[in-house]
TrEMBL record:
UniProt-listed InterPro entries: AAA+_ATPase (IPR003593), ABC_transporter-like_ATP-bd (IPR003439), ABC_transporter-like_CS (IPR017871), ABC_transpr_FbpC (IPR015853), ABC_transpr_MalK/UgpC-like (IPR047641), P-loop_NTPase (IPR027417)
Pfam families, A to Z: ABC_tran
Superkingdom classification of source: Bacteria
GO cellular component: ATP-binding cassette (ABC) transporter complex, substrate-binding subunit-containing
Source organism phylogeny: Bacteria, Bacillati, Actinomycetota, Actinomycetes, Micrococcales
Signal sequence extent: none
Organism encoding this protein: Cellulomonas pakistanensis
Protein name, UniProt field: Sugar ABC transporter
PANTHER family to which the protein is assigned, alphabetical: MALTODEXTRIN IMPORT ATP-BINDING PROTEIN MSMX, TREHALOSE IMPORT ATP-BINDING PROTEIN SUGC
UniProt KW keywords: ATP-binding, Cell membrane, Membrane, Nucleotide-binding, Translocase, Transport
Gene Ontology molecular function terms on file: ABC-type ferric iron transporter activity; ATP binding; ATP hydrolysis activity
Amino acid sequence: MTALTLDRLTKRFGATTVVDDLSLAVPAGSFLVLLGPSGCGKSTTLRMLAGLEDVTAGRIRVGDRVVVDPAVGVDVPAERRGLGMVFQSYALWPHMTVRQNVGWPLAVAGWSRDARRDRVAEVLADLEIAALADRSPAQLSGGQQQRVAIARTIAPRPDVVLFDEPLSNLDARLRTETRALLGRVHRETGATTVYVTHDQVEALALATHIAVLRDGRLEQLGPPEELLERPATAFVAGFLGSPPAVLVGGRTVGGRLVRDAVDLAPVPSGADAAHAMYRPQDLVIDPGGQLAFEVLESTPAGGAHLVTGLLGGADDARGGDRVTVIADRREAPGRTTRLRVPAAPAALYGTDGALL
Ligand SMILES: Nc1ncnc2c1ncn2[C@@H]1O[C@H](COP(=O)(O)OP(=O)(O)OP(=O)(O)O)[C@@H](O)[C@H]1O
């Protein structure tokens, strides 16, 4: 199995830095999800790994082998990096059948006819598309085409597989099905996987490790549970999870974090706190609560209701923070009520966004 190492990787397009000094160690066999808002540099990072995008500075290692290091003139071409890649668009060869599409990379790699036949049959069965072997891509649905693309990529048993939002063109039910299939393929092949998405559920379902990126920089890397339990920054806290943690902004006054004259928590001495973090299930919609709350929408979810609203209410000149809490009943949009916060927040974050 093959580990991946990104060492101070940087990518600039003209004067714009889109990946900024990014270092990541991806253990062999892990499933790393690159997660972050649109434009944070996820796809660019994956494309640099794949060899589809030049690197401005830094180094990439696949196992023990340096595949890119502009400082010493190393740039191994994409096809010689030992990586397989699955894109958002399926890009199957239209004039070949499913069987031929999946077998082609094996032929290119010099597999014998018998070994090719056996391996193609195996991956088609694994991806539950054996019955489609003699069809052409035009005779397949989008979901089936994506399974063929995945089969074609894993057929040569690459040590590392890269995925760029492979499920984003599928409808909700197919996404769930194909997601489960991808998890199974990963468990069976053990291939080190790097997977780009901005879908929280996909990330949390598949990842052994998540790297949250923001403006081309790494905010936090770790197992999903660790990032959810102990977000290192206010950004990660407010981004990860469905719904994410609730961040209540305030100012440090006399050693206390205060919002709209409500005392939220003591601040460690010498620190300057800017946010208190709470779990969405720990805040209660209650007319007797401390903070004004204007309900924007209420969505049923798994027997509870996700209620999104603005903290501070319409009378708050600062403008409210948008937060989502888990409530036991529906709230009417447009209603102004109040939110009761627990005596102690789950965490505090400083003015620089770091965990205090
Ligand atoms: N060829 C290019 N020339 C100039 N800027 C580019 C180029 N490719 C990407 N960018 C910019 O780099 C930034 C990062 O893009 P990238 O596609 O890596 O983001 P992303 O996190 O994958 O976003 P998304 O989730 O929307 O796909 C964006 O601001 C994008 O506009």
